[in-house]
Amino acid sequence: MAATWRTGTRNGLEVVEIETAASTAAIALQGAQVLSFTPRGGRDWLWVSERARWAPGVALRGGIPVCFPWFGPHPTERGFPAHGFARTRGWRLASVDGVEGHVRAELVLTADDATRAFFPAAFEARLTVTVGDELSLAFEVANSDPAPFAYEVALHSYLAVADVETAAIDGLQGRAFVDKVAGGAERREGDAPVRIAGEVDRVYDNDGAVTLRDPAGARSLRLEAQGAGSTVVWNPAPAKTATLSDMSPDGYRHFVCVESGAIGARRVTLAPGARHRLSVRYRAVAT
Questions:
Q1: Catalytic: 189?
Q2: Which of 154, 149, 160 minimizes the C-alpha distance to 216?
Q3: Whether the predicted model's global pTM rises above the 0.90 cut
Q4: Domain limits of the chain?
Q5: 156 is catalytic
Q6: pLDDT tens-digit profile of 224-236?
Q7: Catalytic residue chosen out of the listed positions 83, 102, 156, 254
């Protein structure tokens, strides 16, 4: 079949719906947030909470939110939105093209008075989403300001699993990480794959590929990032989930966030006129 796309609405939000011979996908214009990627005859690679709040200006839990220009709480202004403003802003759909059986969509966010209230720099952020037999995202920021600026970014991937208790993440062995559950303690991962036992919120110093293995779902997904330096692993476990109104009590069992980004010491500093590109390739590999 020929690759096709159309714009429409889903639960009141504007979306781009994409179909290719190999897969289907959906992207919300709010936040340039990929909501789903489903191989033909398979299951969605992404998880969206059944209690997600679908409303303008509200963060939607699930899919792949874009965290920019900071990750987590703002370092000095506690009243600023967590994970920055990009995930709740409307992005402009700049183009959608079919290329050799793939569909490539580009979405753009440009600085304006509203963003300058949180982040005074002039910038253009561009997210390119490529859908085919695999999923690729590329996030590029250009500095159009007369002064340099620094920012953090993460592609906050909620990856669906059949059972979080049997899932494992390969590729982080021996890596240093910040343990946010332990108040920001600095630790180093052991020689075994990472498993989810209780609440996990870690920022790894990592620029290599990672693989999420989901034996209960008979699936493994590999994330290959370029231009990053951080890998975040997050799952709220039962106690933290109980404090989140946009998640069901057992929602934590069905996803692991494995996020590629540039966070903390790995943040990006851009000179005037410079640009930086962070890309992630998501693909299925043998279990």
A1: no
A2: 160
A3: yes
A4: 4-285
A5: yes
A6: 999 999 999 999 9
A7: 156
